[in-house]
């Protein structure tokens, strides 16, 4: 998973400069049918058909540490609403600090998935892993 330029700047300011960052109490997981750029642009979310970003409380239960390298993974299943229309072929996902913008991190989905009527997209426990390298 890659961090956007925005989040990288926030982290650098926090560590080198003492600018306090208040993490969001809720993060939002979204889907994109196009590649996402490092500046957070390029996102094409499904439109209509019941699509909505999934709100996830930003806490240790939902984002526990995994392993000894400081990695974080989703500790609970993240389930999107059932599609009531075709959403297209989802190729990427992202984590945002709001329901309408503020993309923090993003990554391609291992295998692109076409979401059609009646499908329910989800990420099982430990499917999304966040690391700093």
Apparent shape: globular
Provide the domain count.
1
Radius of gyration: 15 Å
Main sheet characteristics:
5 strands, antiparallel
In sequence order, what are the helices and strands, one letter per element? EHEEEEEEEEE
- Helix count equals 1
Please report the distance between the alpha carbons of the first and last residues.
Answer: 10 Å
| Low-confidence residue ranges | none
Report the helical percentage.
under 10%
> Proportion of β residues?
25-35%
Strand order of the largest sheet: 1-8-7-2-3
What's the mean pLDDT score?
A: 93
Judged by helices, strands and strand pairing, the structural class is: mainly beta
Could you describe the 3D structure shown?
By secondary structure, the chain is mainly beta. It has one domain. Helices cover 8% and strands 35% of the residues. It is built from 1 helix and 10 strands; from the N terminus they run E-H-E-E-E-E-E-E-E-E-E. It has one helix at 5-15; strands at 2-3, 26-32, 54-57, 65-66, 71-73, 78-79, 88-96, 103-115, 122-123, 129-130. A 5-stranded antiparallel β-sheet has the order 1-8-7-2-3. It has a 3-stranded antiparallel β-sheet with strand order 4-5-10, with no helix packed on it. Strand 7 (88-96) and strand 8 (103-115) form a beta hairpin. The radius of gyration is 15 Å and the shape is globular.
Brief synopsis:
This protein is mainly β and 133 residues long.
């Amino acid at each position: 998973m890659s961090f956007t330029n925005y989040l990288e700047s926030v982290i650098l300011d926090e560590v080198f400069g003492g600018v306090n960052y208040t993490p969001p109490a809720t993060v939002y997981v979204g889907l994109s049918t196009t590649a996402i750029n490092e500046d957070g642009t390029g996102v094409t979310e499904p439109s209509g058909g019941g699509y909505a970003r999934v709100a996830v409380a930003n806490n240790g239960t939902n984002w526990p540490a995994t392993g000894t390298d400081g990695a974080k993974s989703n500790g609970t299943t993240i389930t999107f609403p059932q599609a009531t229309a075709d959403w297209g072929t989802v190729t990427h996902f992202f984590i945002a600090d709001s329901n309408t913008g503020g993309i923090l991190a993003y990554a391609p989905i291992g295998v692109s998935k076409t979401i059609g009527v009646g499908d329910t997209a989800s990420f099982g426990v430990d499917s999304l892993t966040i690391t700093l390298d």
